[in-house]
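Journal club prep — side note

Before the paper discussion, L.F. wants everyone to see what a predicted structure for a comparable chain looks like in token form. Sequence:
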Amino acid sequence: MTPHATDHQAVHELLGSYALDTLNDLEARRVERHVTRCDDCHAELRSLLGAVDALAVAPDQHELPVAIRTSVLDAIDAIDAIEAGSATTARFGAVSDRPTWAARASRRFVVGRPAFAAVAAACLLVVGVGVGSQLNWSGDGPSRPSDAGIRTPADTMTGTSGVVDVDTSGALADTTMELVDVHGAGMLVTKNLPEPPAGYAWRVWGVSGGHDMHAIGPLDPDAEGTMALQPVIGVHGHDYDAVAITLERADAGGDSQQGPVVGWARMA
């Protein structure tokens, strides 16, 4: 069996635990990295196109009760023992030894992993996965981002999306943005977004009337620089005409736009 086939099989065995959010960070990142890059996984997901409508994405995500997690892990331990034909060391051990269910600080995604599992599957089927190389900025980026570029999407908004390279290095040449309707909730899918220049950060904004910018929060590209997801429509009861990403100084206040718009998207 090839290394890829071995990894593919191992990831499939981890999917159930991934959906339950019982994997540690390293295992969860392994699943996400494999699914993003694997052509076989893409083909399998496309074959499930008819089941996309069954993926429920609720606006409010809730932690799975600990009692359910515990019973699931107990069942897995029991199955392991039966398959081994004799008593065996429990894979997950005592409850106190099991992975913590608390949110982990190292998570890259705004949505929790159980939500990401459903939303990512839907997005993979609807828009595909853009796999690209890590992009790097040449130089230190704009020296005065508060004075550079456009101020609001209305200044350049035509069609359903656009990216403005505020740095002449071409670092955003392969970046794309798309606003996808996933069961009534807008999901911003950003592909090939590089790490911002040192001292800067990406921020996401809801846009009303083409000019009014409402802060949603920071956006970090994932560790591979390939795709980032963020819910933007229907969050906190707000509906927006579009969403935009700006390049802000990392130490700037989160509710006041100071930097230029580098990209925007709206529903087709």
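L.F.'s comment for the group: The CA atoms of residues 246 and 261 lie 4 Å apart. Keep this in mind when we get to the figures.
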